[in-house]
Amino acid sequence: MYDKQNTNLIIFMPQIYRMTRSLLFFVCCTFTVFSLQGQVSQQHNTREDMLTILLEGGSSGKVNLEVDSLLVANYYKLLSQNKKVTGVPGYRIRIFSESGLGAKEEQQRVRARFVSDFPGVDAYHKYDEPFFKVYVGDCRTRSQALKLQDRIQKQFPNSFIVPDYVNIRSPE
Q1: Which of 31, 67, 84, 106 is deepest in the core (most CB within 10 A)?
Q2: Which of 113, 120, 110, 121 is nearest to 149 (CA)?
């Protein structure tokens, strides 16, 4: 008995193998070319952003880019905002937040008390109108923040975790 489906499958398998091998070769070559171009452009254009490079015609002068002026303005606005952000996303614990008469002095007392009770944990004071606030810790993960909150819960029972940009300490 002759089975036509199995014959087609046997003939088709080597073609799939060759196509897969060719596709893999193409992807590897493309990745290599783009990574080399990225390295070269990083070496030559360390101060310029990608939009400026593209608008000026690229390094080879073969790019013609038409961009709406509002898009360009928003792009540069986002770049300037990102330059202002220091640190990385993480968590801090707010231990104080008050407004009114004497709030600033109380903020300073709470911060000083925390620093003396918990040496080695950074404390930050901030004024978000009309509130004077004290934040503590530089926790990269929520679990680190929970551990710190457990440590300080007795002295500061109204503390809670807030997302914030935190400073990274260099290993000593």
Answers
A1: 106
A2: 121
